[in-house]
Amino acid sequence: MKHKPRPKGSIIAALDVGSSKVACFIARVNDDRGSFDVLGAGHQASSGIKNGAIVDLAAAESAIRQAVHAAENMAANAMRGYHLREIVMNVPGIHAKSHRFTADIEVMGNEVTEQDVRRALARAQGQALAGAVDHELVHTIPAGYTIDGHGGITNPEGMFGQNLAVDIHLVSGDSGALRNFATCTERSHLDIDALCVSSYAAGLSSLVDDEMDLGCTVIDMGGGVTSFAVFQSGNMVYADALGVGGQHVTSDIARGLTTTNADAERLKNLYGSAMAASSDENELIDVPQIGEDRHIHPHHVPRSLLVGIIQPRMEEILELVRARLKDSGVGQAAGRRVVLTGGTSQISGLRDLAQLVLDKQVRLGRPVRVPGLADAVNGPAFATTAGLLVYACQRSDELPAEIMAQAQPGNLVERVRYWMKEYW
């Protein structure tokens, strides 16, 4: 199925609304191959968002406005007075569900056309929507084709046969949560042009081609949500998420060491590790106590105490991911490769711990498929934001609305032919 490119020179914007930060990237499309230049980037600490869900509309709206405004200011010269209106936005994985469908259509010995493929995809969407009253489709991803029982076909267009079957990965989002996010963006005078699940976007920016083709799992570890997605043959074949992330580690530290959340976050970033070392017992760190003056009453504890709080929580998250992947039935597709990304993935020692728990080859990922990013926004924490731009430029043919629109025939002759194929 052909990708419909965005016009050269058009402006696209990505909005990543997370539990710990809100980030916005603005880019200009270079050509019809999906390449683009990033013109501006802005980010702001999240407010009104907890564990991937909006808990305060006004606070979330304010954070979105500030992040978008910062990106617009950076891109002001290149945009020449153009103000953002449409954005591609992330869907936190905690609000998304994966579904697998197979749709069959008759081609009656004729050549398979792009219209036939779209008919099959539209039929699968119709089947998925028939029983879902509280979910909306976010992605329609063809995972493989079969013609007259012969599978393994990646592009059936131009082939001949009697029956075309399409294996499809559908991702739906919780309607209520999506409406809350839409309300925040509308109040900021922005329209959502497309939605993309966070882990999918993270994979699109941080995985190399061979990882996508041979099988790889990307784990996007954010502040309030840990999302993960499995890629194979260039497509996402499974997505899931856990409502736990780096902010839970911070809370564990604050409770365990009786310090404030702000100091716990600082200790995690400066001295934290997911793997214990022999030197931890001898290294002392200063832990300010709640309500006490750190200069008058300094409080020192061994670094091993901090690591002893972080490691069990990170092990728990990774074990839950491993269990979800095992239960999903995509173990073979997941391959032997894991890419860790997201802000929490930067905790020291996490890669080694992930290799032990998951029993796979693990590397840390950053948005390698988006060139030209400034160093400040080129790390794992911005993999999802960068991936949203990749999705908007290179994967818009997976949008459910686009498929339904293009699957509907235009003139009367085409409608009659469509009806004959569909019902006879």
Structure description:
By secondary structure, the protein is an alpha+beta fold. Among the domains are: 97-173 and 402-423, Dna Ligase, domain 1, CATH 3.30.1490; 208-366, ATPase, nucleotide binding domain (Nucleotidyltransferase, domain 5, 2-Layer Sandwich), CATH 3.30.420. It has helices at residues 57-74, 76-79, 114-130, 175-187, 198-206, 209-214, 246-256, 261-271, 303-328, 331-334, 350-358, 383-394, 400-407, 412-423, and strands spanning 11-17, 21-29, 36-45, 49-50, 53-54, 86-91, 96-106, 135-147, 150-153, 163-174, 191-197, 216-221, 226-232, 235-242, 284-286, 300-302, 337-341, 361-364. The strands form 5 sheets. The protein has a 5-stranded mixed sheet with strand order 3-2-1-6-11, with helices on both faces. Strands 14-13-12-17-18 form a 5-stranded mixed sheet, sandwiched between helices. It is globular, with a radius of gyration of 23 Å.
